[in-house]
Amino acid sequence: MEKEGYVSLFIGNLSSFEELENYVMQSYTEDGNLVNSEFGKDFNIEYYDDDFREVEFHNEPSRDLRVILKSFSYDEKIIPEFIGICGEHLDQEANSVILLYNFDYDGNVKESKQFRFLGTLQYK
């Protein structure tokens, strides 16, 4: 759910940046009704604001959260905080990252076929 000052982190593995973009892309019908993204469907998220979403695809998968989260908005804050939640090294490699800012995901779905929810924290 939308909540000012919170960020939710999802990691996974896809084959390309284009596949990642398609996975998170929301669209609208001619009548203006939202067509949820595959990501939204997988994690039972009815809506998220695309203006507060960041995604990144890394050519080289990594287990290191410092590498995975480098260059995201507020990285100086969120990297040490997520390391505190998840540890510095993950138990699986990831090449795709989704961050939803101003969003406090409740974690009702922890994993999908390709992604895993790692946690939510306050970033400001």
Automatic annotation (TrEMBL):
<dbReference type="InterPro" id="IPR025560">
    <property type="entry name" value="Imm22"/>
</dbReference>
<dbReference type="Pfam" id="PF14112">
    <property type="entry name" value="DUF4284"/>
</dbReference>
<protein>
    <submittedName>
        <fullName>Immunity 22 family protein</fullName>
    </submittedName>
</protein>
